[in-house]
Design a protein that fits this description.
The structure is a single chain. The chain is α/β, with parallel strands linked by helices. The chain has 4 helices and 8 strands, in the order αβαββββαβαββ. Strands 3-4-2-1-5-6-7-8 form an 8-stranded mixed beta sheet, sandwiched between helices. A hairpin with a 2-residue loop joins strand 7 and strand 8. The chain is globular and about 50 Å long. The two termini are 20 Å apart. 35% of the residues are buried.
Length: 156
């Protein structure tokens, strides 16, 4: 995981982020190692059943977590206007979770400057759903397809 963080730090050094943002649980490890190598604080958005109520919130679209709506929240004291945010997550599939993090950051007045994912499932269209942002999107591994009990990796 440390090497993944080093690689994200190398790729995103030019965007001059001020904070790393992720969703709770599986995005935390790559976000922490990226923040460590960039020298940046890391903050994660928690689900509503984990956190106090006085927080900014944003609903994620269905399919973000096994087809059910999930609301992520973050306290304004941890993500404020003017922040330059780098989003790091474990997977980029449909883009629902990352789009939710983007909306959450925008609600806080922050600017998204880059998105990184450990693994991208290209066939699920997540990168296309984020293209409107016009920012660097990097994945360390791209899967082109998963059919007939085989995984086809994309050449990067």
């Amino acid at each position: 995981m440390d090497e993944c963080g080093q690689e994200f730090a190398r790729r995103f050094q030019p965007v001059n982020a001020t904070k790393v943002l992720t969703a709770e649980i599986s995005g935390i490890a790559p976000a922490i190692t990226t923040g460590l190598h960039l020298g940046l604080p890391v903050v994660y958005a928690a689900s509503t059943n984990q956190s106090p109520c006085r927080m900014k919130s944003c609903s994620l679209s269905p399919l973000a977590h096994q087809g059910r709506m999930v609301e992520l929240i973050i306290s304004p004291e941890y993500l404020a206007g003017g922040e330059r945010v780098l989003i790091i997550d474990d997977f980029l599939a449909t883009g629902a979770t990352i789009n939710g993090l983007v909306r959450l950051a925008h609600t806080a007045g922050a600017v998204i400057v880059g998105i990184g994912a450990l693994i991208e499932k290209k066939f699920e269209g997540g990168r296309d759903s984020l293209a409107y942002l016009g920012i660097p999107i990097e994945s360390l591994v791209c899967i082109e397809s998963m059919e007939d009990d085989a995984i086809q990796f994309a050449v990067q």
